[in-house]
Amino acid sequence: MGAAGILAxxxxxxxxxxxxxxxxxxxxxxxxxxxxKYFAFDTGLWNGHQxxxxxxxxxxxxxxxEKHNPLFREGIFEHPRLPWEPRFDNGYPNVxxxxxxxxxxxxxxxxxxxxxxxxxxxxxxxxxxxVIADRxxxxxxxxxxxxxxxxxxxxxxxxxxxxxxxxxxxxxxxGTSVLHDPADPDPTRRYKLITLRxxxxxxxxxxxSSDGIHFSxxxxxxxxxxxxxxxxxxxxxxxxxxxxxxxITRLWDSNIRVSAMSRSKDFINWSKPVEVHRGNxxxxxxxxxxxxxxxxxxxxxxxxxxxxxxxxxxxxTVDLALQWSTNLTEWNDVALDDSTFIPHGKGMxxxxxxxxxxxxxxxxxxxxxxxxxxxxxxxxxxxxxxWRESALGRGYIRKDKFACYGSRSGNAPSSLTTQGLNFFGxxxxxxxxIEDGGWLDVDLMDQAGTVIQRGFEADSSxxxxxxxxxxxxxxxxxxxxxxxxxxxxxxxxxxxxxxxWAIQGDLYVRPLKYAKP
Length: 517
Known about the structure:
- Helices cover 3% and strands 43% of the residues.
- By secondary structure, it is mostly beta strands.
- A hairpin with a 2-residue loop joins strand 25 (367-369) and strand 26.
- The radius of gyration is 24 Å and the shape is globular.
- Residues 1-27 have low confidence and may be disordered.
């Protein structure tokens, strides 16, 4: 079934909570035990000193669902009006496909009470200051069969102004996320919640559920698990490398927001949170960063808060940038110049006019549907600390097309040379886009990337188109299986009017002697 069919169908059977995690850069004893995939932006793939010319990393094209966005808004702007949803604020959306119940689920943080937003319509907000007073946080829930049309079910769990007819999951909490963990042998723990409780003593807390709706009482972190600041999107995932739960949360250092990590084997006892990533001064603070495993890497969806100089046009806004890591403790920008992943809509600084996502963006980790990866995000128009309206939106990239190498200068040829690769099978595939009149060919070189191997010259390289942009690489009269099986060889890729996104197959990159464990 194609992606368009899924969006219209009642049961999107091919959707999954995210791309299936695979073992990470910490390779098994035998690296030939599985195929490997390497992305163009991964510096570990390339020889950065030899054989790179006229090339640069470019971000992939994020396609917003303009037909359906926004998917749902703050309840005070819906019909019927929901007075317990006056301001989503950052929202911190936590969206996944639940295969057990055949529905998309969305858990989101909001202010259940915010008199200023509740009582001041948008047309009267211009020229008035937004006053923070008597606000109360909470977590609400929405669900969808097709990922487009969402309902906010009346859960009957939390009272609001004398009634439990609402979609409130918890009150006095923020930064909530829920992990669907179907592999847990205990059915009462298959949905794991973590949140920052703000009443009765501020603390990170956990809770468990069998159905994703009815959770146990919030259980504070034990005394041996020091809580971080955590006023952010506290997203948890299960690390396939260690089989531990990993929390990406937030600390403060020298008045700067920084990302922090904590680990747990049982979801109850957590390690001391430690800093793992920070931006660059006041102008680029990492407000929150949901992380997910993908291929041999970890990818982070960093919401970058623009504080500091109030005269800058983007002051008090939040961008969404893509980061990558091999180990969760050191992080890199995907692109040197600009790693923006989800671009803002039009109208920044023009509230109450402007697109729903013109000023602030916080994203959930992806949901994979056929050949697309959908990212659900909370977009806001209006500054972070001022009047703001927020709504849930979504968009997608083609699978694996996060960023690519392309030409730095027009249509002039570009060249790239990999690190040494060991080939343990015939299959070598390149994810590429080639424009009309463009081309790509490949020399096989020695490990240093200086000597072409006989029979593996560029003019004898061949590309056979597979599916979804992947092409199989071979040479006309030579096979990599005839090479020395214990040696490493480099690919020198030359291309014109083409983009290279990834390389995969029966190959692995030569381990460097100075690599971190």
